[in-house]
C-alpha cells in the first residue's frame, strides 16, 4: 500500500498541494483526476521521490522513500526521457543493468505491439513514438507500483486500445497502477479508485464501479457533480 499522509507542497506563493492524505491499495488502478494545474503531476512526483514535500510523508508498504525501495516504483513522466542519444535496444540494456526486475521479454512484446524496432534512435522518433517507448520502459520494470503521468499523450486512439489491453494483461493482484489523464473516457471501465483534486486539495475519493452501479453515473458525471457543487 502507498500512504500519502498530510502532504503539502508549495512553489513560491503557489500551494500546489494542501495537506492531502489518501491510500493506494495493491492490485488496483487508481486515477488522480482534476482540471489543469490542480496538483496531479506534483502528487505523482512526490510519491516517486522526484519532488520532496514541504510537509507530510509518503510510505511505500510501510517504509519511507529511499533507494532501498525504488525497485517497487516505476514512474512514466509527461516529459521527455533522458535516453535521447540511445537506440531503443541500448535503452533496454541500460534498464536491464540498473533495475533488478527488468523484463526484456515484456519490453520486446510491447515494442512489437507499438510497431517499433530496437535499432531506432530515440532522438529521431516522433513525439508519439517517444511516448510509446516511455510506456515500455515503465511497464517492463515489473514494479509493484507503476505511476503514469498523462500516458496517452501523443498516442493515437487505436494504439491506446492496444496499450490498455496490455496494461490489464500484465497487472496482477499485487501490482498497482496510479495514473493521471485527461482522456477519462479511455480509462472509464478500467479505473477502480478515483481521487479528485482541486486547487491542491482532495475533493472526493470514490470507487468508480460503485458510483456506476449505485448512482448510475460515469466518472465524468461524478466530476461534473463535484466541481459544480464547489
Automatic annotation (TrEMBL):
Xref: Pfam families? ABC_tran (PF00005)
Matching Gene3D superfamilies:
P-loop containing nucleotide triphosphate hydrolases
Annotated GO molecular function terms are: ATP binding; ATP hydrolysis activity
Q: Does the keyword ATP-binding apply?
A: yes
- Keywords of this entry: ATP-binding, Nucleotide-binding, Transport
Residues of the signal peptide: none
Q: Which residues form the ABC transporter domain?
A: 2-224
Q: Which PANTHER family match?
A: ABC TRANSPORTER ATP-BINDING PROTEIN ALBC-RELATED
Its protein name is ABC transporter ATP-binding protein
Q: Which organism is it from?
A: Romboutsia weinsteinii
